[in-house]
Every structure is written in structure tokens, then in C-alpha cells.
Amino acid sequence: MLPRSALLLVASLLAALPVNADGLYTKKSPVLQIDQKSYNQLIANSNYTSIVEFYAPWCGHCQNLKPAYEKAAKNLDGLAKVAAINCDDDANKPFCGQMGVQGFPTLKIVTPSKKAGKPRVEDYQGPRTAKGIVDAVAERIPNHVKRVTDKNLDEWLSEDAEVPKALLFTEKGTTSSLIRALAIDFLGSIKVAQIRNKESNAVEKFGVTEFPTLVLLPGNGKEHILFDGELKKGPMVDFLSQVAPPNADPAPAPEKAKSKKPSASEKKPKSDEPSEPEDSTAEAKPSVPVQAPAPAPAIDTLETSEALEAACLAPKSGTCVLALLPESDAEPTQPAKEALETLAEIAHKHARKQTKLFPLYSIPASNTAAKALRAGLGLPEDAQSVEVVALNARRGWWRHYDPSDSADFGPVRVEAWIDAIRLGEGSRNKLPEGIVVTVDEPAKQTDHDEL
């Protein structure tokens, strides 16, 4: 038996612990806490990409995820939504089951589609780290930013001349999460485009001297305005707000939905406040079949040295991206698996959009040419690491993807690297002698002599 003083001390300590009846996250948490009723309005009808955690407060893995998830929420603030729903709450259990939740924590990324209120829902299978979550969500932020050049700039400016426009001058060929989120903020009220610094006519026309620079065109022939503030979401939103207010969220989906309800006179008397959540849950059902989309097809594997030479190392071979895999008697290592999944996802994305992309191949360590290629490019020869390289035998250059100390092969970084290659950005290394398989000239001469 504990003495009375000890019991009082324990009781006081327990009373001092923070208690949150809603689950893991407090009201001050950067994680948006939703339930069955608010999912449809705040997530499904939003123009923003979201990631939703389905959890139970007693789940140890959920508790371990909490710090990384809250960090991801802070990093994605203003760019996307990071939400959580307590599936241990009796009111939420039917909805969690309907969303296909079978274990905790389950993370699902919700991406807006062309049909309002019917987003694409997919399971997040990446690393349970803040960086992994941020990269995956940022990669799925819708892109409403048009890319323009000197050739089509005037055409874009003349379209809907009365509508305000925002033009970002940048040295980068890729479209950042920030400018994509900004375009979502003003979707339907301000048209947003991006132009490279090498488009000299546009640079001169708007008097741009630094990059990046945001230019606002109020419309109706009014003089353009250069943004001279800090290139962060808040100041940029304030700058653009002088010509149009940012969209309320969610918008415009709720307004369209409301405009349709009065026409259904039979349903209106029944759609009092208690019944609306049931309707919202029913509307979410069509999105369930797309929760587990078919995985992207694996990239092709070049098993033999002959296949590798014919595809990528012949004198006339164009650009190839190669994933040089580590030796493994069992399943691929986690970095190798992530690299292959990311490359497959990128290839599948371009195939769906019917955009041209150079071939991506995996090269197993059993391919006899793999070790020679590693040695020739100065890569680790022990074949214990996965190395991703791009090379062009015809033009004699190669580039190495640096996964950084964290061995990050997430979609955002890898796709940015591939986009840079497609756009001709960044430095290239000269292919060392012996990499490209050349024709045996003496044999060729002998044949000619015989003729």
C-alpha cells in the first residue's frame, strides 16, 4: 500500500497530463482534425491535395508517427492539407470501414479531379517520415500553372485580356509546389503562368533583373506590377489580393453543390442538418473503388550485357536512365525498391499523359556489364548500393543522381532530376573512354579488303 501522500502525488501528476478527448492531436496541432461529417466538405470538395491519417489513439505505430506527421503538416502549411480522423470514435467507425481502412495507421492521399467532389484517393505506401510524406503530397499538388515562352507569351496575354494574370520569371524549368499552390488559391480569378529567364524578349519587356520575380498584370491594359516582397506564400497572396481575393476553401465545389440541391424539391424538406452527413457519406462511396489503383508497371530490366549495349551503349544510342541495382539474394534493399517504384511511377505518369520520355531501365548486378559500367563511371564497385544514372552515348555525356545522405529516391526529387535532363538543365559529365561500345574497325577493314 502506498502512503496517502504518494497517492496524492500520483493523482496530481495524472491530472496534469494533457488529455485530448478527440484522439492523438490537440487543438493546437498543425494537423487538421476531421470526422465523418467534415471529410466531404474539407477534403473531398477541396481544390487542394490532402493526406488523411486514419488512426486509433491506442495504436503504438500511430503514436510513433505523430511527430513526423505534425512536422509534415507544418512543412505543407499553405500548400496542401494534412488531416487525421480518429477511427476509434464510434461515430467514425462506419466511415473508416467504408474507406477501406483495415489497420492503423492508414494514410491516404486525396487529389482533386476534374469532377468536383470526386477526388482520386490512393494509399500512401512511402516511408513514414516527414520528408517522405511531404515529397509524396507535394508531387500530387495539381498544376494549374501554364508554361510560356517568348513565342506564345503575347498569345497568352491576349487571352481574356480583362482577367488578371500573374507571371513568374524563374531560372528553373520545373514548377514549384509554392507557385502551384498559389495558382490554386486564385483558381478562376487570376491566371498564373511561368516563364524561364532565358526568354530574353519577355525579360526585357517586363524589366526583370532578378530571378525568381513575380509580375502581376491587373488586366484591361493596366500597367504591370513587380513584386518586391519575400517570396513566401503569405506575402505573395497579399500581393495578388489587390486585384482579386483568394478563394475560400473549399471552393467552388460547395457552391455548385448547393445550387443543385434546391432543384430537388423532394429532398429539400428532408435535408435538415442531421441528415446532411449521411448524404455526404453516400457521396464519398464512388471514390472507394479508386483507393487502391493498379500499381505502375515495372520498368524494363536489361538482364544481359548485350541488351544493355544495344539499348544504351551503342554509338547512336540516345538518352537512357539506368538504375544499377545492388547485389541481393533476397528482395531488393529498401532504397533500391523505392528507386524502382519511383521510376516506374514517373514512366507511367508520362505514358498516361502521352508525353515523350526517354527509356528507364533497371540493371541487375548479375548483368556482367553492370560492374564495368560502375567502374567506368567511378561509382561504387561493391554493388551494395543502388545508383541511378542518365547517359547519352550519341552525345557522349552522363549524369549521376545524388540521393543525398538520406538515400532519398522519392518521386519529387527524382522527377525534378529527370525534368532537368529533359529540359537540358544542369551540368553534364563527359562519358569516359570505353563506355560506348564501338565497332571493331580492323574487322571492318578486313571485310572491305576481301571485297
TrEMBL record:
Entry keywords, A to Z: Disulfide bond, Isomerase, Redox-active center, Signal
One Pfam family in the UniProt entry: Thioredox_PDIA6_C
Region Disordered: start-end pairs: 240-295
Compartments it resides in: Endoplasmic reticulum lumen
Enzyme Commission number: 5.3.4.1
Gene Ontology CC annotations of this record: endoplasmic reticulum lumen
Cited Gene3D superfamilies: Glutaredoxin (3.40.30.10)
SUPFAM superfamilies the record matches: Thioredoxin-like (SSF52833)
Domain Thioredoxin residues, every copy: 5-142
Biological processes annotated in GO: response to endoplasmic reticulum stress
Catalytic activity: Catalyzes the rearrangement of -S-S- bonds in proteins
InterPro entries: QSOX_Trx1, Thioredox_PDIA6_C, Thioredoxin-like_sf, Thioredoxin_CS, Thioredoxin_domain
A GO term, aspect molecular function: protein disulfide isomerase activity
Bias type Basic and acidic residues, positions: 263-273
Principal location listed in the UniProt entry: endoplasmic reticulum
Matches recorded under CDD domains: PDI_a_MPD1_like
Signal peptide residue numbers: 1-21
Biased composition (Low complexity): 283-293
Protein name: protein disulfide-isomerase
Higher taxonomy: Eukaryota, Fungi, Dikarya, Ascomycota, Pezizomycotina
